[in-house]
UniProtKB/TrEMBL annotation:
The lineage of its organism: Bacteria, Bacillati, Actinomycetota, Actinomycetes, Kitasatosporales. It comes from the Bacteria. It comes from Streptomyces sanglieri. This is 2-keto-4-pentenoate hydratase. The keyword Lyase applies. It holds the Pfam family FAA_hydrolase. SUPFAM superfamilies: FAH (SSF56529). Keywords: Lyase. Residues 83-263 form the Fumarylacetoacetase-like C-terminal domain.
């Protein structure tokens, strides 16, 4: 499809949503959707994301929070996309420490180490800042996100990953909560191991300067779109270091300085 024969915007949004939905349903990666949306129309891409999320909700999935993508410079460099984005977290994406994840639910999975925020209060002010995030956060958890892409070969422009729910797959939460009081998350170091071998290193400052800053950015974005963060939401605040391809079954263990550990167990199939 060329610029000269593209249909009007609603039809292009519908075509992008249909392509990504079909790819997810068949577990077969698809061509980029930027051919419908262009490379820079973020609002159109978020409308695709909204439509797909509404379809999942209508099918019975429950929204449990939000995720931030493309926060770490190492990840931005991996894809040549240099601004953050966000997506929706659903209950069927959520796993606990050591709970098996079936490999066949993913298309092109990769693992990254993060800090998850669990909110005790709404954050609904369009001008929300770090003080609002600190006040609203009930506790944080070590977390591993399994990112995934419906786009063949992770060939992404910003509109591709936004439309594809910020390349979401699943997330694994630790089971020991840590209050934020006295913690400087910008100084938290991270090591992600695969089957006992270190494969990714990072720190809190790689996540937009601090994961708290990243969550404040998300709160403002969602409030501006009239989809504010609510008490009880889980927020995956963004990668602290490079993402790691998942080529098969394995155990991915994340250690965060002062915030404990969490392990994602990828199995060929769950029992």
């Amino acid at each position: 499809m060329t610029d000269h024969d593209t249909p009007d915007l609603p039809a292009r949004i519908e075509a992008a949503a249909a392509r990504l939905t079909a790819a997810a349903g068949s577990r077969t990666p698809c061509a980029p959707v930027r051919e419908f949306l262009g490379r820079e129309d973020i609002d159109a891409a978020y409308e695709v994301q909204r439509r797909i999320a509404a379809g999942r909700s209508a099918a019975g999935a429950r929204v449990v929070g939000a995720k931030i993508g493309l926060t770490a410079p190492a990840v931005q460099q991996q894809f040549g996309v240099f601004r953050p984005d966000f997506g929706v977290l659903f209950d069927d994406m959520m796993y606990a420490h050591t709970e098996p994840l079936p490999l066949n639910r993913f298309l092109q999975p990769r693992a990254e180490g993060e800090i998850a925020f669990v909110l005790g209060q709404d954050i609904d002010r369009p001008g929300a800042g770090v003080a609002d995030v600190l006040r609203a956060t009930e506790f944080v958890l070590p977390a591993i996100e399994i990112v995934d892409s419906r786009i063949t070969g992770w060939d992404l422009a910003i509109t591709d990953t936004v439309a594809d729910n910020a390349s979401s797959g699943a997330f694994v939460l630790g089971t020991t909560p840590y209050p934020l009081s006295g913690l400087d998350l910008s100084r938290v170091g991270m090591v992600l191991q695969r089957d006992g071998e270190p494969v990714s290193f990072g720190a809190g400052h790689a996540c937009l300067g601090s994961p708290v800053v990243a969550v404040a950015w998300l709160a403002r974005e969602l409030a501006a779109r009239e989809q504010p963060l609510r008490a009880g939401d889980v927020v995956m605040s963004g990668a602290l270091g490079p993402m790691v391809p998942i080529g098969g079954p394995g155990r991915y263990r994340l250690a965060l300085d002062g915030l404990g550990e969490v392990e994602a167990v990828i199995e060929e199939e769950t029992k």
